[in-house]
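thread: overnight batch results

M.L. [08:02]
morning all. the overnight job finished for the chain we discussed friday. pasting input first so we're all looking at the same thing
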Amino acid sequence: MILLRLYWEFFVVGCFSMGGGMATVPFLFDLADRTGWFTTADLASMIAISEATPGPIGINMATYVGYASAGVPGGVIAPLGLVTPAVVIILLVSRLLNTLWKNSRVQDLFHVLRPASVGLIAAAAFSVCAVSLFTWDGGLTLHWPSIVLFGLLLAAMNLPKLNKIPSVVFIAIAAVVGMVFQMVD
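M.L. [08:03]
and the structure it wrote out:
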């Protein structure tokens, strides 16, 4: 019976806590008052632990409450209850989008939006390059270490033997070198 109630209580929380994991907190305060499964002090600890551990905050808190209330089965059932409404909504929306996608006006709208999204991505790339490659010290100057790093990584990514390496490796190398540049500057 506790497992069914855990599922239902977190299903209700999942239905009404739109906006991310922290949106579940008011519902969890109410749940603590109504069920006695945990105290408000426990809730503060759950928030701290959920913020410090990987994964969505709401799922982490649901797992904690479920486990504290009913052991491992509760730790599985409570998060399932929390995500069920989102899964149902996604399935309904995807069904609606599949129907809409067949509409020629919707397809035309997406064809119009493609250049706009390319423009937004290009503007973001330009902004990042401007901040990374140039400095403003009363006048616009080139930041040579960043330009050299950019050139080396671009060349390395296009070498036949190195282009098989995942891009994330190059991003990690650039991050480490960037941190070194930051410490030197």
